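RECORD TYPE: inverse folding
INPUT: structure tokens
STRUCTURE:
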């Protein structure tokens, strides 16, 4: 946890462009955006995997997801967005603090992952 980039961002030790914050999560701009709008919604509680979640973590994550629905228009995502959580090696998770990618601000084309090596 001491070495976790997202814990440091939450504490303000690493700067970020913050669009929303409440008791449970922050929403920041991804440093390396993959679309016109690319945000990270990061629960303040540190855990890596779905399977690491306690019941109360799951309740809090549910509240975060509901809140994302409320704030999406203010993030420029009123026409829709893609919601992604990468978990583990196959998904190329690179930061081991569970977080949600919110991607949009443009038409998002569907991906066929089978066509990649
Ligand atoms: P993952 O691959 O773990 O699902 O996503 C990690 C995301 O965090 C990547 O999209 C990456 O660009 C983003 N990221 C990594 N380091 C930083 C940082 O210091 N600041 C911000 N804003 N985003 C970061
Ligand atoms: Zn963390």
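DESIGNED SEQUENCE:
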């Amino acid at each position: 946890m001491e070495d976790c980039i997202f814990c440091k961002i939450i504490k303000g030790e690493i700067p970020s462009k913050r669009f929303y914050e409440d008791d449970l999560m922050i929403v920041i701009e991804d440093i390396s955006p993959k679309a016109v709008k690319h945000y990270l919604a990061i629960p303040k509680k540190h855990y890596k995997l779905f399977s690491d979640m306690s019941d109360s973590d799951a309740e809090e994550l549910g509240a975060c997801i509901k809140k994302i629905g409320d704030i999406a228009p203010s993030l420029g995502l009123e026409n829709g967005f893609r919601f992604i959580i990468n978990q583990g090696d196959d998904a190329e998770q690179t930061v081991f603090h569970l977080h949600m990618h919110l991607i949009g601000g443009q038409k998002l084309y569907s991906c066929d992952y089978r066509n990649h090596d």
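NOTES: The mean pLDDT is 96.
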